[in-house]
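Pair request: fold both.
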Amino acid sequence: MRNVFVFMIACAMLLSCQSGKSSKVDYAVDPNNREVEVVDVLQASAYTYLEVKEKGKKLWIAVESMEAARGDVFHFTESMEMTNFQSKDLGRTFDKVLFVENLRNSPVPLKSQEVANVPPGSMKSVSGKKIINMEAREGTVSIGELFSNKAKYDKQVIMVAGEVIKVNTSIMGRNWVHIQDGTGDDEEYDLTITTLEMVRVGDVVVFEGTIVLDKDFGSGYYYDLIMEDASVKINPVL
């Protein structure tokens, strides 16, 4: 049986070479993989802080709460760097910590069709534009309209409706929410919102907040457009 399996693999490789076309290999390993070994573990309420060793150098990374132990080996490709980051839970300030998005036990595979071309540390990396069919809601501004006419909405308090795609909690004293509504072009379709309220991925929500352009929080948190100090509208105007 093993010989048959090897023969099939060899045939597949030969056909691939002879086809003259490069086929998409979804299981290939992402070349940006980083491999780290856990040296120490600190548990906080929302995050697990791991002191890790990478190529002989030690550094701190933070991930959403998980179980980990010394000697564990992990891989990741997506992270954002924070400097002089204060953890109130731990009563400690880290000179530098990487907030890791996709920590896993094995090397991270290449994504097939959803690579977000954004600078490291921008917190804008999402899993790509989703197909969302939402009915227009009176009193709200679509994400496509918002990005198309940025200057019009600068410093304006508006309402937006969308599906929650990603949530980062308790960073810089606020929660960071990404929503999409299916509008916008291939570059500008995801709106980042800062809020003190808690929502979950998959929720369909209406947020009201202030639109701010060219916002630079420092430590890599720069946004061409962002909604700040947003609140969830329980009874939106339909």
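--- second member of the pair ---
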Amino acid sequence: MNSKNLKKYKYNGARTLVLLHEKHLRSFLLVWREAKRLNIGLPDTEDPDYKSLNTLLHHVFRAARGYMVWMCSKLELPDLKIKPAPEADKIENEVDEYLIYLLAKWRIPLADLAEEKFHSPTFKSNWDVDYCIDAMLEHAVMHPIRHEFQLKNIIEG
């Protein structure tokens, strides 16, 4: 997928964030694969999303799905019926197919919305923080960036 195939959006800011989300999910996956190849260990934590590299990969893709499901729900858009991310024990083998599927689903729902819908009102996130849609898009972009940064720091020692 490339940006030339992405239709025009009423609010170009949303289009930009959708494309940045794609870019950084792909970049995270490359770094994750390098970490896997190097067999790096994650720091000890009680967080179940950090039990292994596979649980981290599942976490990032589960969240990416969740952000779009949340935005569609709050905007009262049709349910895209985005299938869940493969479970941690399967995701390594299924991630390429799921990535293509998920990115295609991300391109659909926000294109025809006016800019005003992205800024007001705000809604409670699943973790009880208020976000407007634009802020949730930015959060979705930053999520794989943060985890990529963490993995790079571990790889670099």
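Observation on the second member. The longest strand covers residues 123-124.
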